[in-house]
Design brief:
The protein is an all-alpha fold. It has one domain. It is 79% helix and 0% strand. The termini are far apart.
């Protein structure tokens, strides 16, 4: 399979995960989260998958990994780190 095919498959998988997280939820519950922390806990995990789908989609359209793909993937990583900090570290 070509790189474009793999990027397209990755886009579809990440998109499905994003839709599931947006509609059903990701199963993460932090009862004491309030304010900005609650927003991050409730929505950042979905945003990670949306950003990954966009990164892979941009790569699929170009047929290769691009600067835009990289920026979106790094944004997904930063968002995921923020999500993890909000769930496990911040109180």
């Amino acid at each position: 399979m070509t790189a474009r095919t793999w990027f397209t498959v990755g886009t579809a998988v990440a998109g499905v995960v994003a839709v599931v997280f947006a509609t059903v939820g990701d199963g993460v519950v932090v009862d004491d989260a309030t304010g900005l922390r609650k927003v991050v806990v409730d929505h950042a995990h979905t945003l990670v998958w949306v950003l990954l789908a966009l990164a892979l989609g941009a790569a699929a359209v170009a047929g290769r990994w691009t600067a835009l793909s990289q920026v979106l993937a790094v944004a997904a990583g930063i968002t995921y780190g923020t999500f993890l900090l909000s769930v496990f570290v911040l109180r």
